[in-house]
Every structure is written in structure tokens, then in C-alpha cells.
Amino acid sequence: MAQNSASENNNGMFSDQQQQYIEPSVITQSNPPQSNDQITSSSSSGKDSQSILDAVLRSGTLESTKPDPASHSRNQMISNDAFPVPPCLSPTEPTSKKRQRSKSMGIPHNTTKSAKVSAKNKLVWNPTVLAAPVSVPAPKSPSPQSSCCFQHLPPINRSTLAELSIKKILHNPKLRHEIVFETKLEFRPKTMAEIDPVKLENAQYYWSRIEKDLANYDLFKNRFNCANNPSASRISRLVVEIKGMLLDILDDLEHPHLSRSISDIDDQLVLQQLRTGSFNPSAFTDPLIEIMLIIAKKERHPRIQSLSGLVDAGNYTAAFKDVLYCLEQIKMDIANSSIENFRTFLKSTSVSFEKNQFANYLNSKPEFPIFNSWWSSCLDKYKPKHTAMFSIFLAGFHDLLLDPSLKIPELFYMDEARISAFRSEISIIVQNSLLLFGFDQYAKNNPAQLLDRARFVSQLLLRPPTLSLDFLDTEDDKFIDFITSFVANSRPASNITSRRLTSISCDLISGAIDDPIPEFKRFCLDVFAVPIHSFFKRISMVSCHHWSVYGDYYVSFN
């Protein structure tokens, strides 16, 4: 087994993609840039929505930093149990004169043979040194802040997959908010570029330690017949974690008969068997593979079935990695299916859920300095013009979109990325409308010149394709000069266009106008009527939902 482990690619990660998760920000939408989260439909769990709704998982999203009880006594175990003092060095044994003479000369007695044997493995077996307690230094950590995690927990564990549980999904504020605006969400693994370098380094370190533990485990088992193998601790923790992850998945699916078959595995018995070298990997992996094939989607079956070949070949590191990968994919498929099953419920209760969340947050008496400044200026600016508070909010909201210098208020924290995307989109609309407006002015002032150029170009296009078009670079620069000068002095025009867009959007959302096309033509924006109308429709969804959640707080503002 040591040879197989040594030949394993020791990159510390899965071969195709990293299996870490983001918090609510792990959710991504299929139609960016409107959101930043993640979710696809997958096969149904086989239970109705109400039964899934009652399912409860026992884990959380962040990597666990709880110390492992086995780690507290690790050094003591190695010094006292893993290296028993040979009988020849027992303090009660009588010492011969020949041996006394050897010891007085500083020569270890009868150590040459054992040193030669273990030199093949670069491990010097010196009984005279091992008679004293051994102090084993802790491995150098690439990241001190997460040492507990990378020493004993794999990169994918129950904690990192906790956000995929049904309970976490139903109480995920970010997901409950995003599902209102996005038609398709999907949970997905992070790409290598999205992974925190510290977590990546910790994962690589963890798998390198597993690789060494497997090699040392085989060495101690075959060479020294040790009754308390020092390399069993981390391996047993990995086996127990895999068992716990599968139980969490089965709890979501509510398969008690499958849960019983895997919960019968005793954690302490696994540790004891690993320490004594009697653990049978096939006895653990065979029922695991059978259960995974039952609950997984069909496209996951080939990789699950390949686990048996890895175990039979003794390639245990790759088998461990693939097991974690398959469990993660199964968990993700179940979560995605749950999102689709509960979509109607999540959307219909999103306003009440967010209002309750905000009311609970207000109990801590938070401060909103950016919001206070922004809303105060909106009241001072628009209260003389509008009697309804919602109209004042709409005008202030569109000022927020049209002026990138304004900071986004705290109450828009869930829509911050969406508002930034709106700002970029509306800036493009304004700039394009200014460009067309400048061309329109040029065409009105130079109709004959434009007609002459159009005839000239149409004649050239009828000629063979070998014609050089370099003349286009040296044509009359009058139009370029005009556009350059127009854009240089377009700040007032940009302000006018922005105000026109604000006026139209407020009238559209408030219902003051039914047909926006005449308004677009009146403001010379008819060319962009379709994209502007679509843009304002998306803006109205955000503004109306925001007002439904936080409207009472706006009205009560003093």
C-alpha cells in the first residue's frame, strides 16, 4: 500500500475541481449580472415537499475549528504506546559485564542489525534512544488560523456542506432574496480561481498528511507489528467524517432503512481496527457505494462505481478524494432539487421573511449613517414635489442609480451588486443616446454631405472585394471633430438625459403613463425604447420589493 500511496498524485485536491463552498454567496444565477449566487434542478428526492420541509440537518457552512479530542493525546500516545521499550532495556533487567563495558564505551548494544533493516525506510530504529519518552514536534502549519481543521478534517466535510441542507436553505436570507428576481439558481462548486489560497494550501497539506499517514500505517503494520498504530488517528477521523456526511444526506432524503445500515458502523471500533491493523476497507466501502448508487443521479454512477477499483488497487488517497467529491455532488443535487420544489413557497413568503429578519436586526439598535444622509437629502429635495413617500423613494432611488458618486445605503446591502450592474447599464444607455443625439445634430446640419458619402460608399461596395478600404481612415474628419467637441461639452446634455430617464421611470412605475413610447420619442430616446423599457422593468422589481420590506422604516424616519 505504501508504494501505491507514493505513486498517487499528491496535489492535495480533487482532480477536476475544488470542493469548497461559499456561504450564501455561493449561489449563482444563470442570467448575470443581476445576481451573485448558485442553484439547478436535479432529480427529486422522492418525497413530497412537506416531508422535505421537516428535514433537519446537523451541520454548518464554515470550516470547523473545533479541536479533535484525539489530537490532545497524540504525542503522549506515540511516546508511551507506539514505541514500547524492548525487554532488553527494562530497568529491572540485570545487566551483564559485557554490556556494561559496551555502554561505558558509548556504543549502543546490538543496534547494528535493526538500524540496517529500517534504513531502507529512512527510519533509524535506536532502542537506547527510544527508552526515553519521545517528543514528536507538531507539523509545520501553512495556516495557523485553521490548524485544527486541516490536521483532522478533510477539505469537504459536514460543516462545509451544511449550507446545502434543507433547513439552511429555508433560512438563508440571501437565497430567499435572490429567488425573487432570478428565474434559475444553482449551487455549484467553486472554481480554482475562486478558492481562498489559504484554504487551498490547507487542503494540499491535509492530503499530503493523509498520504504520509497511509505510508506510515503500512510500514508500522508490516515491519513492527505495532499494537497501537500511531498513524490511525487521522485516517479514522476521515472514515468517520465520510460516514457522518452520508448520514446527513440520508436525513435530508428521509431514508431510515438506509441510515440504519450505515449508522451501525461503530466509530470506536473503526479506530480500534485501524490501530491494530485489522480494518477491512472493502467491508466499509461496499455498503457505502451501494447506498450512493441508490440516492445519486444516473450521471454520477460511473464515478461512484470506479471507487471499488481504486480500493482494490490500494489507491486509498484517490478513493478518499473521489468519495468526498461524489458525496458533495449528491448533496448539491438534492439541494438544487429542493430549491425548485420550494420555489413558489420561497417567493410568496420572501417579503414577510425579510421583514421579520429586519425587525430582529433593529432590536440591536444598529446605525445607518449612509442611509440617513441619503434619505434626508431625498426628503429635502423631493418632498415639495411629491406627496406620496413612495414617489419620493422612487426619485431618490433613481438618483442613486444615475449618480455613481453616491454611496449605496446600508438597507440595499443585498442588492449592492445588482445596483452596481444597473449603474453600468444605465451609463451605457446614456452614452449611446448622447452619441446618436450628436449624429442626429450632424445629419441635420450636413444633409448633402451625408447623401454624397452614402452614394460613394454604395458604389464602392458594388466593386470586386479586392478594393482597398484605406480611404475610410482618411475621409473627411468633420464628423469626428464634431462628435469630439460634442462629447467634450456633453456634461449638461448627460444631466438632461439622466433627468429624462428618471422622469420616465418614475411615471412608469407609479402608473402615471401606460404607453412609454411617446415619452421616449419626446425625449429623443425612441431608439432605445425597448432596452430602456426592459431595464426599467427590472428596476421596478427591485424598488417595489425593497419598499415592501423596508417601507415602514422609511415612513417612520425622523
From TrEMBL:
GO process annotations (BP): protein kinase A signaling
Biased composition (Polar residues): 1-40
Residues covered by region (Disordered): 1-117
InterPro entries assigned to the protein according to its UniProt record, in alphabetical order: Tcp11
Pfam families: Tcp11
Superkingdom, taxonomy of origin: Eukaryota
Extent of Low complexity compositional bias: 41-51
Similarity annotation: Belongs to the TCP11 family.
Protein known as: Protein SOK1
